[in-house]
Amino acid sequence: MLVKDYMTSDVVHVDIPGNRDDVLKILKRTGISGVPVLKNKKLVGIITRKDLLRKPEETQLGLLMTSKPITIGPDADIREAARLLVSHRIRRLPVVEDNKLIGLISVADLIHAIAQMKIKDEIKDLYTSTTFALWEDTPLPLVGRVMEISGVDAIPILNSDSVLQGIISERDLIRHSSIEDSVGVSDFSNGTDDDEWTWESIRDNHSISFGISRVQLPNRPVKLAMVKNVVAVPKNSEVSECALKMRRSRVDQLPVVNGDKRLSAMLFDRELIRALCKEDTE
């Protein structure tokens, strides 16, 4: 099972010099979580949804992207791809041959492979993650901040009766975000009464206005942006069964429920691909 058999060959990318707003439009339109950055047709970085949400005022791709990304060759085994994705906690690997970008293999591509492998291991505590939840009336800007602090990609949403109502993910935040332009003022005045016509006196008594463009989340409750048709799984579900549900539902995570259908954990695709690393050691 080789990388070239599961990678995406038609890769959406952006070029330096480029525009942050164009990246945002691509992520909104396609629903993908990141794109490679090229300069003179050579791979120089990766820019993701996290980068846009963490640096809402930055517009330069060179300052937003992760430079010198980890890559893999097309003839590598997908288990090697899984090891790299898990160990570096990333979601995609550019596939490079002769210094040329020829594809991209992502966590979602490996989930596709796992769905075909019929791995019977139960997810239980091997692949599930402890989680927390937010109330359905939590404002979206606060949800974004919680995601940034916690480092999670998605959060379950509960109502006031602690019943699972939906899931909010980075994809949903990007879909509801917009570009907001404003004007900032930098005040150089230090309150001195120096009348001498010098650079120091100009500097000490003047302010400068400048434009600010940032990625902005609307101040509305998360229940208006979350995905409501949630597919949940019990703890005794099998690995490949869960991978198939993720693929069919086109989601990156599944809530894990106990016997009375109460939320107990989360199953993230980035954790589930660890099953490939386990298979490699057996």
UniProtKB/TrEMBL annotation:
SMART domains in alphabetical order: CBS
InterPro entries membership: CBS_dom, CBS_dom_sf, Diverse_CBS-Domain
Sequence ranges assigned to domain CBS in this UniProt record: 7-63, 65-122, 127-183, 226-282
Keywords from the named record: Amino-acid biosynthesis, CBS domain, Methionine biosynthesis
Origin superkingdom: Archaea
GO BP terms: methionine biosynthetic process
SUPFAM superfamilies membership: CBS-domain pair
Protein name per its UniProtKB record: Putative signal transduction protein with CBS domains
